[in-house]
């Protein structure tokens, strides 16, 4: 009787040892994985902060302003004037809505809409003065303009040396 | 166990008859000797191990010190919209342990294939010593690091360091300040953060928060900072000024949205910051602000109750006090009302208003708005104003139009904000703050009714025939006060050297933002023009407002009723 009991105990002990060994092995593997992941997180964080730094380097307001000036002939961005800002209520009613009886207006559509034909006048956008010819000329000019210095990050900027 | 016992025990007679008795007797001491020998060997090994353990690795001390000194981690600094103003990037630094270097010449030759400046005799000298640790080169590129690593030189190693990067370069240099090569803040907000977060101490203890440090958000708006710097820079060039300053404040919270002082420096070239000409003039420079002070004089006089908007004062012939004579700059040759004194910037009229209000009233008022003490901001660079120590009629009279008292532009800006925001003086801050938080520490310096009158005076000064007409931006209801101060050189006022300023706010029916610009020694932009504030700093302030108002969400209005004065 006692002998059987002992055999059972030994069996349980062996089983216990086996289970503990497996658990220990698993936990070691998990710990290794955690370390690896932590390293990867740290690396990724570093990469993110590097990219953020690069992003803000490329988005310096001064650089953007220089680019806008440089490619002005092509993209035609102008400074905002106070007269160009309005609220939605200040947008005039559509011409057809004011004269509903001209036969063309669809009474089911909402009356307050942009007068699409005259966007330029309403939003105050820069009037389109360039013909296709002019635009082409402007594009040609860009190659020459691209020589202007001071827009790209300087050669000794630490960002150039950064790992990607 | 039983086997061993049996053997060591003297053999019972009869069982081990084949072994001679004397051999058994002899084996005792032999075993003992052998055991002793082994014990001695193990003892030596243990002793050696202890010794190795005790006198540590000879490089650790110096190296560890270098390791903890260099890699100070700093929080990122962001603007109010989350744009990065300062961040850390990783760089490597090259060091050597001369004791472990095999062959100085060979090492130098090998290093010079990657870094030619390693041929410097100083490097040779450093490597020839028996020091435990020397720096060879700080901040090398990852490419150079990889190439040196591949050389496989003994006694040469790298330490990864954090290097501060300022993506916006000069733009915010005076706000952010600088860090030294060990990444410790030495000026500006960087130094403030060092003190506040105890970065240096933490680094010495080797404590680094696991997730890095939380990014610090400032009240500065990068876009507005850029506009102010761009416009001040243009104006400085156009009017050939020696220096230019620009400040934008939120008048309801005291937040600094932009602070520019030109010339400035590139934080990547720290020695530029040491040049005295590149100092932060906004908080560390004190100047006689000139006629801009008529703002404070009018507020003081109106708030005292002894002067009302409808009073008028004689300006003909100037004002004689003792043997000092105060004369007019743009003389009208007649008596002027209080609003006229303001818009024509009459020195005599202002002096008479100050004298009417009283010497003590003026002194108490200036004390209240903080003109006699240092600013209370986060920046370490703060100058003490200069002011007369004794009350006298002449100093009261000159201080009324901004002479004989020198304050920083930031003093002027924050006091100006108090004049138009309803009368509450706040301390300027470089960190975000809500109006409610600002109210907790705000001090009332003038009554709300007086503030209303100041708004009226500001606004009419930007409409014809006011001196600040050129600052008006269609739709944005600008108000402001010009200042043209003659500079003091060698103890006397120079007539052709001026410091011009313009204190502006918008929109005037409920002011939200204040703009202060200063140009030092502007010259006329073309012959025949004079270099007064109305012709240079006023349009400069107008240009800034034209660009920043849409960014700040101030709606242009074109059908506002004309502003009227609150009754007295």
Secondary structure layout plus pairing:
The complex is a heterodimer of chains A (164) and B (568).
Chain A: H1 2-58, H2 61-70, H3 72-75, H4 95-98, H5 119-123, H6 132-145
Chain B: H1 2-8, H2 21-54, H3 60-70, E1 77-78, E2 84-96, H4 104-112, H5 121-128, E3 134-140, H6 142-151, E4 156-165, H7 173-176, H8 188-197, H9 199-205, E5 216-217, H10 222-238, E6 243-250, E7 256-262, H11 271-274, H12 281-284, E8 287-288, H13 294-304, E9 312-313, E10 319-321, E11 324-326, E12 336-337, H14 338-343, H15 347-357, H16 359-368, H17 393-400, E13 406-407, H18 409-420, E14 424-425, H19 435-441, E15 443-444, H20 448-461, E16 479-489, E17 492-506, E18 513-520, H21 537-551
Parallel strand pairs in B: 1-5
Antiparallel strand pairs in B: 1-2, 2-3, 2-4, 6-7, 6-18, 8-13, 9-12, 10-11, 14-15, 16-17, 17-18
Explain this structure.
- The complex is a heterodimer of chains A (164) and B (568).
- With 164 residues, chain A is an all-alpha fold.
- Chain A is 57% helix and 0% strand.
- Chain A is elongated, with a radius of gyration of 36 Å.
- Chain B folds into two domains: 73-217, Alpha-Beta Complex (Penicillin-binding protein 2a (Domain 2)); 222-551, 3-Layer(aba) Sandwich (Beta-lactamase).
- In chain B, the strands form six sheets. In chain B, strands 1, 2, 3, 4 and 5 form a five-stranded mixed beta sheet that branches.
- In chain B, α13 packs parallel to α15, α13 crosses α16 and α13 (294-304) packs antiparallel against α20.
- Chain B has helices at residues 2-8, 21-54, 60-70, 104-112, 121-128, 142-151, 173-176, 188-197, 199-205, 222-238, 271-274, 281-284, 294-304, 338-343, 347-357, 359-368, 393-400, 409-420, 435-441, 448-461, 537-551, and strands at 77-78, 84-96, 134-140, 156-165, 216-217, 243-250, 256-262, 287-288, 312-313, 319-321, 324-326, 336-337, 406-407, 424-425, 443-444, 479-489, 492-506, 513-520.
- Chain B has 568 residues and is of the alpha+beta class.
- Chain B starts with a helix and ends in a 17-residue tail after the last helix.
- Chain B is built from 21 helices and 18 strands.
- At the A-B interface, α1 and α2 of A face β2, α10 and α21 of B.
